[in-house]
Write a structure and sequence with these properties.
Number of domains: 1
Order of helices and strands: EHEEEH
Distance between the termini: 31 Å
Low-confidence stretches: none
Mean pLDDT: 94
Number of strands: 4
CATH class: Alpha Beta
Strand order of the largest sheet: 1-4
CATH topology: Alpha-Beta Plaits
Strand content: 5-15%
Bound molecules: iron/sulfur cluster
Length: 92
């Protein structure tokens, strides 16, 4: 089980979520973040930190964003870890 970052994360201007993650499992893609499901411990600390409600436990992931489960797993290992709040992500 893991938490998933879904579509509302696109072009985030906050990255508030990464600061609270105790296992540093957020990875910075070009326009959104991904959670490595092999590292996430389901602590839920990040969920209330996200101002746009982009993070879901995989059991609660809305159907319309179901594909984000595999996307997080696939993309997280390809990007650098992000552990500190940063300037807005570059938009596309
Ligand atoms: S706070 Fe985190 S999960 Fe929420 S939109 Fe920003 S980067 Fe994405
Ligand atoms: S649920 Fe906890 S361990 Fe998983 S990404 Fe969020 S803060 Fe990190």
């Amino acid at each position: 089980m893991a938490h998933i970052v879904a579509e509302p994360c696109f072009n985030c201007k906050y990255t508030d979520c990464v600061v609270v993650c105790p296992v540093e499992c957020f990875y910075e893609g070009e326009s959104m973040l991904f959670i490595n499901p092999d590292e996430c411990i389901d602590c839920e600390a990040c969920v209330p930190e996200c101002p746009v409600e982009a993070i879901f436990h995989e059991d609660n992931l809305p159907e319309e964003w179901a594909a984000y489960k595999d996307l997080n797993k696939e993309m997280a290992p390809q990007y650098p870890v992000l552990t500190e709040k940063k300037e807005p992500l570059a938009g596309k």
